[in-house]
């Protein structure tokens, strides 16, 4: 197999190296100028090299990207957004292969090479959204990898038949199933968690539960999730998305919830939204409670915001949590890359031999400079393929 050699790049701002790629894998990383053998050579020109970014919480099926501007509407609550989306999505052709493809193109353009996407599964759309996302992903020839979470955006117990749809989605290959505010949306947290954990245990899939409920109500549900995770032996397979309550709790209560999550191996996915309480990220890091960063929805009926750049999300995380030292700023970038490997079932995700050949080159002095400026991606290699060169996307 012919090799590709990426020469003279600085992984994480370290000394220059050459990276030898074999197919979709990094074969070796050697000091700059020492990579021998035949193969196409790409001059990295001393640029900063980072692993491809990982989007741990996306909604690829919801976007109207590529269509004329859609004005924000509806009531600005979780239920209001759900109702507005249900009323308007069919008229906009959502879910759409073309809009999903447009979002994936933006992800790649910004250096994201792996995605964990929630895809709506409900009585109106059935499993069609999953089919749409898979169709769009297939068009990229393996350049971007997407794991699917079958997501009951309209509720579970209040919509009889949704549990069956989630079970069918898991049987058909979704790597996880989702849940949504067991207390405030379904108003029966025990029943929702019984149903979801039953499917996860039976089908061997993960769980990812959107939790918007704040304060003590949210904390109560986090503890229920942790208890179920532990009792059913699903450690490391359950994620809480958003989980705003964790940042709102008094310090002693917060610590007790963190202890429960640590014991159960429950991880967190956040989009670091403005005007929310900061997460206790130091305690989470020190206890091994994984944190993944995501874009959430992009240009959809929930919000007009989003450009697909997970590095900007990392910057938002840093600003929300008051990160300033070099070590802290580098940690924010790690959350968008190496530390998110588990969210897409990768044992390793870095610029090392044996890892998938996902590499992003940026014109930046160091990792910290890249974070605060978010410069354009000069080169993106995804699964061994050059998909962005000189900032321009090279895939359809």
Tell me briefly what this model is.
The protein has 396 residues and is α/β, with parallel strands linked by helices.
Helical amount among residues, as a percent range? 25-40%
**Mind describing the biggest β-sheet?**
9 strands, mixed
Task: Return the average pLDDT rounded to an integer.
Answer: 96
**Terminus-to-terminus distance:** 25 Å
Walk me through this protein's architecture:
By secondary structure, the protein is of the alpha/beta class. It has twelve helices and 17 strands. The chain has helices spanning 78-88, 97-109, 128-138, 162-171, 189-203, 215-231, 245-248, 251-264, 281-287, 310-320, 326-335, 367-373, and strands spanning 3-11, 17-22, 25-31, 39-43, 48-51, 53-58, 112-120, 145-151, 176-180, 206-211, 238-242, 267-270, 291-293, 359-362, 377-382, 385-389, 392-393. The strands form two sheets. Strands 1, 2, 3, 4, 5, 14, 15, 16 and 17 form a nine-stranded mixed beta sheet that branches. It has an eight-stranded parallel beta sheet with strand order 6-7-8-9-10-11-12-13. Helix 5 runs parallel beside helix 6, helix 6 (215-231) packs parallel to helix 8 and helix 10 crosses helix 11. The chain starts with a strand and ends with a strand.
What topology emerges from the helices and strands here?
Layout: E1 3-11, E2 17-22, E3 25-31, E4 39-43, E5 48-51, E6 53-58, H1 78-88, H2 97-109, E7 112-120, H3 128-138, E8 145-151, H4 162-171, E9 176-180, H5 189-203, E10 206-211, H6 215-231, E11 238-242, H7 245-248, H8 251-264, E12 267-270, H9 281-287, E13 291-293, H10 310-320, H11 326-335, E14 359-362, H12 367-373, E15 377-382, E16 385-389, E17 392-393
Parallel strand pairs: 1-4, 1-5, 6-7, 7-8, 8-9, 9-10, 10-11, 11-12, 12-13
Antiparallel strand pairs: 1-2, 2-3, 5-14, 14-15, 15-16, 16-17
Helix pairs in contact: 2-3, 4-5, 5-6, 6-8, 10-11
């Amino acid at each position: 197999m012919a090799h590709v050699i990426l020469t003279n790049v600085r992984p994480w701002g370290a000394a220059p190296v050459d990276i030898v790629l074999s197919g979709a894998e990094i074969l070796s990383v050697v000091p700059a100028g020492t990579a021998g053998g035949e193969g196409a050579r790409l001059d990295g020109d001393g640029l900063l090299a980072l692993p491809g970014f990982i989007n741990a919480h996306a909604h690829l099926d919801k976007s109207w990207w590529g269509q004329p501007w859609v004005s924000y509407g509806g009531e600005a609550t979780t239920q209001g957004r759900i109702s507005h989306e249900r009323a308007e999505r069919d008229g906009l052709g959502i879910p759409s292969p073309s809009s999903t493809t447009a979002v994936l193109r933006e992800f790649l353009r910004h250096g994201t090479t792996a995605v964990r996407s929630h895809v709506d599964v409900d009585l109106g759309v059935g499993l069609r959204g999953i089919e749409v996302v898979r169709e769009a992903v297939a068009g990229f020839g393996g350049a971007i990898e997407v794991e699917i979470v079958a997501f009951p955006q309209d509720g579970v117990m209040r919509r009889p038949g949704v549990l069956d749809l989630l079970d069918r989605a898991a049987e058909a290959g979704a790597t996880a199933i989702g849940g949504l505010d067991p207390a405030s949306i379904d108003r029966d947290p025990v029943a929702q968690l019984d149903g979801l954990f039953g499917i996860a245990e039976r089908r061997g899939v993960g769980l990812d539960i959107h939790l918007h409920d704040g304060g003590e109500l949210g904390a109560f549900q986090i503890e229920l999730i942790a208890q179920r995770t532990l009792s059913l032996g699903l450690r490391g397979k359950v994620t809480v998305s958003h989980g705003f309550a964790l940042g709102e709790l008094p310090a002693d209560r917060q610590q007790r919830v963190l202890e429960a999550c640590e014991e159960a191996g429950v991880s967190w996915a956040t989009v670091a939204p403005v005007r929310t309480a900061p997460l206790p990220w130091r305690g989470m890091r020190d206890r091994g409670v994984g944190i993944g960063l995501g874009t959430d929805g992009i240009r959809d009926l929930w919000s007009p915001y989003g450009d697909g750049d997970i590095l900007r999300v990392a910057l938002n995380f840093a600003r929300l949590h008051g990160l300033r030292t070099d070590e802290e700023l580098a940690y924010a970038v790690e959350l968008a890359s190496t530390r998110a490997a588990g969210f897409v079932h990768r044992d390793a995700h870095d610029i090392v031999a044996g890892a998938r050949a996902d590499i992003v080159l940026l014109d930046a002095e160091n990792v910290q400079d890249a974070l605060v400026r978010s410069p354009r991606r000069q080169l993106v290699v995804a699964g061994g393929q050059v998909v962005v060169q000189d900032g321009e996307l090279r895939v359809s």
